[in-house]
Each structure stands twice: as C-alpha cells, then as structure tokens.
## 1
Amino acid sequence: MAKKAKKGYVILEDGREIKPHRMSTGQYIIQHKWLYLLWLPGFIYFILFRYVPMGGLVIAFKDYSPFKGIWASDWVGFAQFQKFFSMHDFGTLLYNTLGISLLSLFLYFPAPIILSLFLNEVTHSGYKRVVQTLVYIPHFVSWVIVASLTYQLFNVTDGIINLIYQMITGHSFDILQNANTFWGLIIGQDIWRESGYGTIVFLAALSGVDQELYEAAKVDGAGRWRLMWHITLPAIRGTIVMMLILRVGGLLNTGYEQIFLMRNDLNISRAEVFDTYIYTKGIKSGQYSFSAAAGMFKSVVGMIMVLISDRVAKMCGESGLY
Amino acid sequence: MAKKQMVKNGVRVKKSVGDRIVDVIIYVVLGLIALSTVAPFLYVIAGSFATEKELTEKAFFIIPTTWSLNAYKYAINTANILRGLKNSIILTTLGTLMCMLFSLTFAYPLSKSHFRGRNWMMNMVIVTMLFGGGMIPSYIVYSAYGLLDTYWALILPGLINPFNMIIIKKFFQGLPTELDEASYMDGANDLQIFTKVALPLSKPVIASISLFYGVGFWNDYFGSMIYLSSAEKYPIQIQLRSLILLSSSFSDAVMDYYDLNGAPPDKAVKMACTVIATVPILCVYPFVQKYFTKGVMVGAVKG
C-alpha cells in the first residue's frame, strides 16, 4: 500500500513492479483513428475561431487599415496603448467599470448564497421545488426581455412601479434616465435575473452533505444557527471561493449586452464602461487598432487577476480552479 | 430523507416556538422572492391580452376584464415580428445542432483516459477560457473569413463553449469503462461505440447542453447587432429591442392607422411582443429543467 509505483510502472498484487507494454504512438493513432477523426473538427474550430483571433491582436501594435490588411499595416509599437491610457476618458471608464463590478461583488454576489441558505432550511420538498423552478426562470430570458420588462415597469409615462411610486409620494421618479441610479439599476437587474440560477452550484455542494452530520449536531443540542455556521457554510465554502475567483477575474468584464440596452443619453456619464467603449470605438467608429489595444488591456488584466486570485485561494487551502 | 432518518434514530427533536417562527419567516420570504421573479411576466402577459382602454385606466391587474387579441393581431401583422420569429427559429435550430455536433465529438475522445495527447489538447481549451482575442480582432478575422451579414458569423465562433464541453466530457467520463471493453470484444470500433453506446446513454447531458446552446442563440442580440446588417435577417431580439427600447414613441408611426380604429395599441402591443419573444423559452423550460440541474451539477463538481 505504502509503496508507490515509478512512472510508467504498475505494482502487481504480489508486490512485483512491472512495466506494461506500451504501444507506439503511431500504432495507437492507427488503432484509435476514429477518436482522432472525432476530435479533429473541434481542433480546427479552436484554431480558426479562437487562436487566429488571438493572433489578430497584433493589430493592437499596428495602425490597422482595412485596405492594407493585418500584415501590411504599419507597426506603431505601444502607441495605441499610450493613447488609451493617457486619454481623458480612461479614468471615467475605469471608475464606471470598477464601480459597477465592485457594487455587484458586494450586493449581487451574496444573493445566491443567502437564497441557497434559505432554500436549504426548507424541509417541505414540494414547496422547495416550486420556488426553485420559479426563480430559475429569469436566467433563461434574454437581456432584451429583461430590459423590456424593466422599461415597462419603471418608465415615467405608464410604468406600473412608477405609477405606484407616484401614488405614494406624489411625484414621479425616473430611474431609467438618471445617471445616479444607473449602477443600482444594473445591479438590481443582475440580482433579479441571476440570484435564483446562481443557487444551483451551492445547492449541488449542499446535496453532498451527509444528513447524519445535522442529526448528530442536533442531538448534541446545536440550534439552527450553529448548524448553519458549522455544517452548511463549511460545506459550501469551497464553492464560494471558486465563484469568488471567477468573479474577481471578471472585474473588468461588465458585459456589453445589459449595459448597452439600459444606457441612454441621460445616464451615459455613469454607463460608459470598457466593454461598451470598445464596441463604440471599434465597430461603430472604425478605430480598430485603438479599441483592440483597449480590449487587450482588459483581457490581460482579467487573466492576471484570475491567476492571482486562484493562487491566493490555493494558499488559503482551497482547491482553486486549475 | 432527513425526516425518515430522524424518526428511525428516534431523535426527532420537537421544534421550539422560536424555530417555528423562523420557519414561517423563511417560507414567506421565499414565497415573496418567487413571486417577485414571476410578477413582471404575469403583468406583461395580462396586459398583452387587455384592451388599451383598460391598460390606461387601471394600474395593475392579473386578469383583464375584457379579453382582446388585438395586440397580438397587430404584432403579427407587423411583418418584422413574424420575420424575426422565423429568423430566430432558423438560427436557434441550426446553431444548436451544429454546436452539439462539434461539442459532443470533441468531448468524447478527450473523455478517454488513454487518449494520447489529451493533456495538451485540454490545455489548448483551457487557454481559451483564460484569454481570447476579444471583440475587435475577432470581428476583423471573421470578416476576413467572409462571415459578415450571415448567420455563420453568429454560429461558428461559438461552436464549442469550453464550459459546456467540459460538462459533456465529465459526463462521458462517468460512463462505465466496462462498456468500452465489452464493445471492443464484440469488434466495435470507437465510432460505433460513440454513436451506439455512449450517445444513447447521454440523454441528460445532451438535453441540458442543447438547452444552454439553444437559449444562447434564441437570446442573442449583441452578435446579431455586430454582424448582421440586412434588416431582413434580424432575429426577434433585435426587433423587440427596436420596438420597445429605441422607439418609445412607437405609436406615432401607426397613429394614422389606429386613429380610425380607436386608441393606439402602443402599450399592449409592446407587451404582446415581449410575450411572443419569451414564450418559446418558457415552453421548452419545463421539459429540460429536470435534466439541466443534473447536468450543471456534474459540471460543478470539479475533478
């Protein structure tokens, strides 16, 4: 039991170490040609649609002109990056992006965890299932529909929530065209749409908890809070850390869809983030190299942050992502 | 499960009054949360069947007093909506089939522990989860491929979603290896084992991942906005966006027509279009729901 086999060796029951016959790679490929043929289309896909665009990032170091093409365009070194970092809007973009992400980290991130803890307390399985089924629904609905619903509920002319607000306070409140409420609006939509679905991973982790742990603790006189604190929370701690790593890695990814749908001329000062800016500058106004540089900055920082938080999680004894 | 054990072990502790109050609070709060997730849908569905008159007079109702299909008639007669629906159905069906084909075939070899090269092949996938070209280089490369203004620009870039692929791979890994051995004995090759043994056993993961891909295609609007330029190719989400979010004075355009027929159908039509774009999702949802929690769970447990 204690003996460990050397690389490539196998230990038999009587303790002998033998090296099993290993066929050559050529033989293996011929024997399993179907496996390689099944794998091939996906491989070609990854090259053409994931790696070639990565190579396309060279335009961030060039002055790309669609007429000259990627290779013939002139090299400009880091000029695009310099332009990006020194421009006046950079501070605003960073402020809005981090503002939305951090607010979401503090307000949205705990929501599915709390909801899972609540669901975990429900002993009536039918009730639990109904609630789960209902709260998962918004996740499957598009951002366009979420935005449409928001508009139909909150707009100042005939939005129902605005009408109720008007009845109570006597004046209307435009949450949709107001720079100060934009971040709250985005986080609110996030919480409404994703909290329910976000519980799945936590509930999956909880389903692995041995129920006898709870019984034993109850016999020892533990109350509801102690059960939650000493059994339930430790059971999902690894999952929480994993989700947090992903979240931190995505701090600069606010996403385009949602923000793009909710922004308008009146709230743009709080609604312009890296993602929307890259779209506007790149696709709309054709400054390809400049916006590619902006995008590259974002991806590189994102990757570094994922790797750092993964390392930190491992140092703290969690299993991390990779 | 929990209950049974409690009785069996004879340690069923009677709940205190305080515990019961907490229970009630939890049930009520969860009920309210569930209600708040569906209330906007109920409001819009009710409104879409109501007359414009009722919508302007009453603030909130769940069942309209007079039912009317006018909003739907108008929505369907607005050619864009019907065409958008048709486009979305084409895009979603074609896209989901292609994605499943590529993801299943790619995941299967990687699920075999003896598959030579699987380490670097997996690393190649994981790199793309960490880093990517981003929107602009992708746009330039895909236009060089000649994909602009075609549905291929929406389908091909996402053929294999690494997360979905890993879920499928984990599922395949969970199938008993004895099946492989037995089939090899019977003289089957890897392709035959894949199509005749592995795929029929993989219905849960196929159902849930198809749902993920399908919902993605149905809900996509940003891709269409970037890559599609001809209006006749626009899917339903783009139509819905321009109807509700871009033209809040939508009724101006149809005022002339509806002046003859009474109040403009502005609000009810918007609601009807929202319902039309949502219903397909809500229709498949119950069928796949039992599968997708399973599928997601397999993926959530890493290993």
## 2
Amino acid sequence: MASSAAVPFWRAAGMTYITYSNICANLVRKCLKEPYKAESMNREKVHFSLSKWADGKPQKPVLRSDAPEV
Amino acid sequence: MLRQASRLISRSVTAASSKSVTARAFSTELPSTIDSTFVESWKKVAPNMDPPQTPSSFMKPRPSNASSIPTKLTVNFVLPYASELSGKEVDMVIIPATTGQMGVLPGHVPTIAELKPGIMSVHEGTDIKKYFVSSGFAFLHANSVADIIAVEAVPLENIDASQVQKGLAEFTQKLASASTDLEKAEAQIGVEVHSAMNAALSG
C-alpha cells in the first residue's frame, strides 16, 4: 500500500512538526506589539544546565539561560 | 508452561468458536462486555490466574452521542500557558485548517484537523471574536465538542503591522538566497507565517 498524502515541505526538508510549530509560534511572538511582546518573551524564557557524563562522573556543565531563539 | 498459556488458549478458542471477528467495529460501537469464550478457555488452562485485561477495560466509557443535533457547539480553546475558552457554548467556529478555512457548526462530522497559521473566529450570536493562530490542531467530536489547541494565539489588535512587513521582506529575501533544504524550509515557513499575518491584518 503506497503512502497517500504528499509530505509537507518542512517534513521533506527533514524538519519535525514540533520544530515547525515552534518556529511559527516564535515568528508570531516576534511580531507582537509591546507590552505583549515583552510578556511573551518573558514567558518563553528557558533556563537549564546540561552536563555530559563520562566514566560515571559529570563533566563541566553547560548553562543555557536565555530566551529561545528561532 | 505459563508462557504457553496464550498459545494454548488461542488454539482452543479458534477451535471452539468458528465465528471470528473479521469485520472490525468502530471503537464507539464495541460492546463493553468481555469476550466470554476467551475467559472460559483461560479459566480451563490457568484457573488460578486472572484473565488478561485489555486496554478497553481501563478506558472510561465513551461519551454518548446526542440523538438529535445540539443547538450549540461547546468550544475548548487551549494554549500551552493558558486556557483561552473553556466549555464555551457558541454558534459557530471558523478554523484555519491546512485544507482551508473550515466552518464548524454543531453536529459537525468528527474530524481531526491540522491548523495552519491563520485567523480563527468564534461566532456567538452577533459577537465575533478573532484570534491569529500560529499552528495547532482541532479535534471535533461527535457530541459537538470542539477541542482546539494552538501553540500561540493572539487577538489581531496585538499584532504590529510594520514588523510583519519587515519580517515578510526579510524572509522573502532569505528564501531567494537560501542554499540548503533546511534553510529553504525555514525561509518558506517565515514567508507563509508573515503573509498569513499580513492577510489577517488587512482582510
């Protein structure tokens, strides 16, 4: 049974739906008027610390603490 | 020996019951009773063990469909950070599905629609509320409940027209100069979203 629908262009380029959806949402947020823009950027800030492990010990952590960019 | 139990049962069940469910029923139409022939054969083979449960035994019963079409559509419009509309009874909703603007009335056929960037309007009497939706999904159920989920939805007044024009020009230029597939896709998305916003503001 052949697959039916044509794939969307972003799927064909190797992008997942979540990436596509997040890009769309970020673009819309960038086009808002103040103060809504500041509110939404504030809301979407992420803070995380990532550390890779080697030989059972955590290596130096990488700290990401900024608003997500497209 | 217990590993063989399922094999022994399927052998005895297929031998015992000549009627096998070859035509699959829809999940809303299946009876809630458990298959008695299976349970009997199981008890013969493994009397001390409970028969295995199926996923349907853990599910709540499906909401029953009204016999007549309800007069109002119940809308649940949610965003990741807020519940915009919760159980609101409206007359009609127009959603920006990928297949085009779709009007949803009470009694709409059950549908799952993927949304594209565009305007969603909620009609209540003479009141029309419009939102610009970035993307998401709309689940229309048989009992005239519509669950619409979007990642970002803003009232049209909150969009800055000059930034939209700037963005549109920027991404059109990026699309022309893009090299890799991924860059082209990103630029294409930018052009689509900004043109949708442009159309929303002017239309």
